[in-house]
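ok trying again, last paste got cut off:
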Amino acid sequence: MVSHPAGHRVSTPVQAGEEIGWRGYALPRLAARFGLGRASILLGLLWGSWHLPQFFIPEADTYGQSFFVYVLQVTALSVAMAWLYARTNGSLLLVMLLHAAVNNAKDIVPSALPGADRTFGLSASLVAWLTVTLLWICAGYFLVRMPDRTADVQ
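nice, full thing came through this time. structure:
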C-alpha cells in the first residue's frame, strides 16, 4: 500500500506531511473544481504516481511490484480518506491516523509478489488482488455517500 523506503521509524512524520499536502491543501481545491468524489479519485491517481520512484529502489518494499495494482489500492484509499475528511469536518488528524494505521498494518499480511520484476505489469499476489477488491468495495460505498459540494467538507 502506501510505503516509504525509510521504514516505519520515520513513516509517521512523513505521512503527516503528506496529508497536509494531499488532504489539507489539494483535496479542497480539487473538490471545488470537480466535486469531492471525482477529486478523491484524481488525488488518488496523483498520490500513487508520487510514489512511482519507490518502485525502482531495490531497498523499498515496492521494488519490482505492480505499480498499477498499487495505484488501484492507493486510489481506493484516497476515496476512503476523502470521505473520512469530509465526515469529520476536515480533520487532518484523523486522516493522518488512518494513513499511519494503513502503513503500519500493511506488513501483517504481506502482499508483495516474491521475485517480482515487472513494475508496469499486472502480476500481483492473490492477497494484493483481494486487497484491491475489498478496498474498491469500500470506496464504492464511500463514493455513493460522499458529499457533492466542497462546502460540505469544511
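cool. Residues 2-10 have pLDDT under 50 and may be disordered. The longest helix spans residues 8-34.
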